[in-house]
Design a protein that fits this description.
Layout: H1 2-19, H2 23-61, H3 63-78, H4 85-99, H5 103-119, H6 129-139, H7 147-155, H8 165-189
Length: 190
């Protein structure tokens, strides 16, 4: 459905620009935006490689294991499948990777966690409460190291790109708590 919406928006914009004889402006805007997008992506690749290296050091030093040990007792309070290591292992690793700002590394763990949650799901084809809760936690994860935001701010020339870290930590902590509370309340009704 979203493809149709995007097609409609882009198509109607192009159509209206041609009617108003502003095709040259549209062509220039497309060329400028694609050029700046490629430049941004190339810049982000370098910074993301740096952060992935830092996170690999954190993994090798045992930091990720320490965070994982902190998360396990909290998650055991939230999930019905708390004693199923096959389910909780990928859940913990996904959330740990997200907390450390490794969104790309978290994806395989998130997919594995959903697969394992689906295996124990009693109603196939319908998301279980644990699946919904995991999705909420994954989407609203606390960010200790918001690497993508810091990278973009750095690339765009921010003088103090780390100034947002306290705000991001507070906001993500608050949204995570509120999201879990709302999810638990809704689980009682649905």
């Amino acid at each position: 459905m979203i493809n149709y919406i995007w097609f409609f928006m882009i198509g109607s914009g192009l159509f209206l620009s041609l009617i108003n004889k502003e095709g040259e402006k549209i062509t220039k805007a497309i060329m400028d935006s694609t050029s700046s997008t490629v430049t941004l992506i190339i810049s982000l690749v370098g910074v993301m490689c740096l952060w992935c290296g830092v996170m690999k050091i954190a993994e090798e030093s045992g930091l990720t294991n320490k965070i994982s040990k902190i998360l396990r007792p909290i998650l055991k309070l939230l999930f019905k499948e708390k004693d199923n290591e096959k389910v909780m292992g990928p859940v913990v690793m996904n959330l740990t990777a997200n907390i450390l700002g490794l969104g790309n590394a978290a994806t395989p763990f998130g997919l594995k966690a959903m697969e394992e949650l689906d295996v124990v799901n009693e109603k196939k084809g319908v998301a279980s409460n644990d699946m919904a809760l995991f999705l909420v936690l994954n989407a609203n994860c606390i960010q200790l190291f918001p690497t993508t935001i810091l990278s973009i701010r750095s690339i765009e020339g921010s003088i103090n790109h780390g100034v947002v870290m306290i705000g991001i930590l507070f906001t993500t902590f608050l949204t995570s708590i509120i999201s879990v509370i709302i999810c638990k309340i809704l689980q009682k009704f649905f």
